[in-house]
Design goal:
- With about 325 residues, the protein is of the alpha/beta class.
- The protein has one domain: Rossmann fold.
- Helices cover about 35% and strands about 15% of the residues.
- The protein has 9 helices and 13 strands.
- Helix 7 crosses helix 9.
- Bound molecules: uridine-5'-diphosphate (UDP).
Length: about 325
């Protein structure tokens, strides 16, 4: 691969920072744009001395002007806790962010990859979810800022592609976990591991029968790179691990693996919480030759080790 000049918005976040690391390893020149609302400089610390790496503190809802060959648009808080804290800003980040990045891609002829989400399927009536399914999303609920923000981002990518010939690509990311998630991120994998390690109650929302499919971050990043490197395939394409678990099963696995004495308690189910979720990855397999390799327990082992270290730092960031 020729060295490319690359922009990653949200590059200080959980997925964005892993992507940054892989692109630097491949010899690319990477600029990270992040307003640090949920991203952390700590995630980028190991790249700081690298001449091919640069960090710019910037909010993607404001225009940014510089030429790039590849743009990865990842800026947006992704944990329900985080994106519901300032829902108006969440919609602005997705909507104005993709507008600004598509405008930039159009001006400098860049390829743009949009990080979309399984949330575009809402509470799905088709299971597992295939890309051709249009979804079942509440437009006025507490998750809408994220779901509809990402849906309109997909619309804009598709229209800039049709109307202006911008080389856009859409990936739909399913639940992802791994090192660099924040201790207080609020998502289920980090919550359960941190609670188990601290001997606190494991907070299962609802009766725990809802399902999710968990992809280890390095598998996801491989899929992202395969998609970006593929010509003539705009997507959308699902990227996720098709192994499906109930939330209660996840709690039991985490308790077993940590040897924790934590009890499982049930708290109210948040509104519009999808009842099932599992990607159909046939398209990713056939178009990209991609599928995840890391089984849940293997990924959890590495993630538990990461959180054990984080918790010895004492302070929760
Ligand atoms: N969940 C839970 N306990 C927690 C956090 C989340 O039971 O402490 C549940 C949540 O209600 C949802 C699933 O775990 O059904 C996944 O939640 P997460 O916030 O990780 O992501 P989502 O897939 O909902 O965006």
């Amino acid at each position: 691969m020729n060295a490319k000049k690359i922009l990653i918005t949200g590059g200080a976040g959980f997925i964005g920072s892993h992507l940054t690391g892989e692109l630097l390893k491949l010899g690319h020149n990477v600029t990270v744009l992040d307003n640090l609302s949920s991203g952390r400089l700590e995630n980028l610390r190991e790249y700081e001395g690298n001449d091919s790496f640069r960090f710019v503190r910037h909010d993607v809802s404001e225009p940014y002007c510089e030429d790039f060959e590849w743009i990865f648009n990842f800026a947006c808080p992704a944990s329900p806790d985080a994106y519901q804290t300032d829902p108006i800003q969440t919609t602005k980040t997705s909507m104005l962010g993709v507008f600004n990045m598509l405008g930039l891609a159009k001006r400098c002829g860049a390829r743009l990859l949009q990080a979309s989400t399984s949330e575009v399927y809402g509470d799905p009536k088709v299971h597992p979810q295939v890309e051709s399914y249009w979804g079942n999303v509440n437009p006025i609920g507490v998750r809408s800022c994220y779901d509809e923000g990402k849906r309109v981002a997909e619309t804009l990518c598709s229209d800039y592609r049709r109307q202006n010939g911008v080389d856009t690509k859409i990936i739909r990311i399913f639940n992802t976990y791994g090192p660099r998630m924040r201790v207080n991120d609020g998502r289920v994998v980090s919550n359960f591991i941190v609670q188990a390690l601290q001997g606190k109650d494991i907070t299962v929302y609802g009766d725990g029968s809802q399902t999710r499919s968990f992809c280890y971050v390095s598998d996801l990043v491989r899929g992202i790179l395969a998609m970006m490197g593929k010509d003539g395939f705009p997507g959308p394409v699902n990227l996720g691990n098709p192994g499906e678990f109930t939330v209660r099963e996840l709690a039991e696995i985490v308790i077993g693996m940590t040897g924790s004495k934590s009890r499982i308690i049930n708290l109210p189910l948040p509104s519009d919480d999808p009842t099932v979720r599992r990607p159909d990855i046939s398209l990713a397999k056939s178009e990209l030759g991609w599928e995840p390799k890391i089984a849940l327990k293997e990924g959890l082992k590495m993630t538990i080790a990461y959180f054990e270290k984080e918790l010895t730092k004492g302070e929760i960031k």
